Structure formats: C-alpha cells, structure tokens
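Supplementary Note 3. Input sequence used for the single-chain structure prediction.
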Amino acid sequence: MKQLSIAGRILILLVAISGIRCTAPSIISTTIPTFPVYHPFGQAPATIVVANSFDVSQSKYRDNKEKQFVMLLNHAVRHTDFQIDKQVDAKSFFEEGLLIPPATRDSSTRILMTAYNATHAILITSFNIYFEQTEVVVTQSEGGGKSREAFYDIIAEIGYSFRDRKGPLYDTLISVRKFHSSRSVISGLLAAGPNIVSNTEESLGGVEANVELYLRGLFPGRDTRSRFLFVTKEFKAVGAALKKFDYKNAFELSEQLSTSTDNFIAARAYYNCAVLLEYNENYDSAKIYLQEALKRNSLQEAEMMFSGLRKY
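The predicted structure, written as discrete structure tokens, is reproduced below.
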C-alpha cells in the first residue's frame, strides 16, 4: 500500500512540475518492464485455473450487500483470468460462483485442477470493499460557527492463494485504496460514510486495481510512464522533430547537444536521449545515457527515471 501511495504522490508531483515550469518540456508515453516478486513457473508453460473460495454468506451481510459482493467476486475471478490471458503466455480458465468451499479447499482445488488439467490455481480466499474516513477538516466561520468536512477513501482488500497440485505456494492479502469523496458532517466521529452498494462503478474499479497489483507479484509486466523532453532554447530543433513524430531525428539532435561544454545542457541532452531510447525499449542503453546525464548535473528528471530503470 505504501508503494502505491508513493507512486501516486510522484505522479502528482510530476504533473505539478509540468504545470509550473516556465519552459515546460514536451511529454511522451513510454513503458518500462516490471518483474514479479514471486515467479514459480521457470521456463515451463503453465495452465492456471481461477476460482472463488470465499463464502460471502458467512459474513451475514444484508441481502443487497451480499448480492453486490457476489457480483464483485465473480468480476474479480473474470478479471484475473482476463489479465492472465492478456499478459502471460499461459492457458487460463475460470468458473464463477463459490466453486471451492473453504472447508474442503485443498481437496476441491485438486479436483478442479484435474478437471482442467491445470498446473496451478489462483483462489480468492477473502474479500472486502469498504469506505474509510481519513480525516475531518473543521473550518471556523466568521460568525463563530464551525463546519466539518469528512473525507473518505474506498479500500479493496482481497486475499489470494496461489497453488499447485501439492498445495499452497504463495498466500497473500492485497489492499488498494483511492480517494473517493468528501461530505459535510455534523460530527466527524458519528458521520456515516458512502454506501458501498450505491458505488458499483468505484467498487469494480477497486477490484480490478487489486487484481492487477496481485498479478504483478506473479508475472512480468509493463508500466506506462509519462516522460518529459526538453524542447526549448537550445532544444528547439528537438521539439520541432518531435512535433513531426520524428523520434530518430530528435535523438540525433539531442545527442549532438550532449557534447556541449555547458554541463546543464549536456545533462538535459543525455536525458532526452535516454527517454527516446526507453521509448524504443532499449533499456540498457537508456540507463547508460542517464548515468552520463547525472555525471554532468543532478537533473531531477534523470534521477527519477534512473531510479525506475535501475532494477532492469
């Protein structure tokens, strides 16, 4: 959860920087590879079956909330299967409903895996989506009165069990949160938050974000990055090339400027080259150019980009 919060703050910072710079650079979208924390497959292809093993009825929710959670659980199973097919060279199958009763989780999972001739299974073992009050802001009015505004995040928590035919390999709980809304309240302590049943779209978004974060722990993936490019003053010709989508020429022009005796200009030129190399998925060369940029100047853009590419 801390990683998501830090990433979100960095993104906000980048947007803010782009808005206040008097010589705002151009921006292009690039991608970087991501690597799993846990990767059990080796070189062999896998066949994965995805199923639910969380019994919502045991939580004794009111009928409309139980119905909502069943729908969200089915969506979590479908989205897990969809993302595996999208990201990984592996076969994936899924079935909706409470397919794996918690009381017979081990035996029922083996039966399901045999039916699909699966090498692995992903089970959902716990599930909750709720609103959490994060703060209450009290404002003093000129007349001496007070107004209170409560702020709420929506939180999606899903437990997963990754298994082979012998049993559990990797169990984890993933939690994601996102700011949702604020409302005027009389008392912060007694304020009722938003209704989860009335916020289906936000709940579905929370489920999808949770699933995608979980799968990043199992499979290689890609992350999109918005990169600045310097295109003003000495770099005007680079900007002109980018407007024509001539990235090859933009790289060559930036590389020429990297020989400047002005270290600040040279650093920005090397950084531009690194962004364009990353755009072409040449990550090793991009790191070399970033190192050259940082030798000449502690350029913030280069430092942030290098920290993201360092693991590659």
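The chain has nine helices and seven strands. The longest helix spans residues 63-87.
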